[in-house]
Amino acid sequence: MTYLFYAIISLGILVWQTAVQPQMPFFRWMYDLLVSITIYLGLYRPAREGLPVVFCLGFAMDNFSAAPFGLYITSYLWIFAGIKWLMTFLDVRGSLLLYFVTAAGILIQNFLSLATAVAGGSDLPLPEGFTRGLFIQFCWALVIGPLFLMAFRWIHEHFEKWWMDRMAEKNGYPTLGKSK
How far, in Å, CA of 90 to CA of 105, rounded? Predict the structure, then answer.
């Protein structure tokens, strides 16, 4: 059921990013919110649960974007692996570093996009608004990133509790909220 939860949330974000967000000038330089989901999975979920979801997120974005195929899979997997690696040294979840992990993920994603463009033989100069756009995305990630991570964790915990209560009721066991 957790995977259904991830699918619903991710599909909602995909629709937002591809259909709604481009039509709203205020959100023009908003960062890729699926990076936040990737970071959430790296911080709070086991690798056996997060890795398939991250791969599917990357595959979906590769299909919906005009970027070279594999760019999003690669960037999401590197971000996920980087978070898992960082968690071996630091407990990011309860520290001030939580405010910077999303911003670091955005920098990694943009670096990989730029490296892909350069490796693909693009000898065009950087777009005029690239550095400005990167700075705005970085600021969005600093402000919205930690809030998104905390909200996603809260929603996911309540969804799991709700689901476990429904399964307990279905199987005739008392739920956490009620006693029989």
Answer: 16
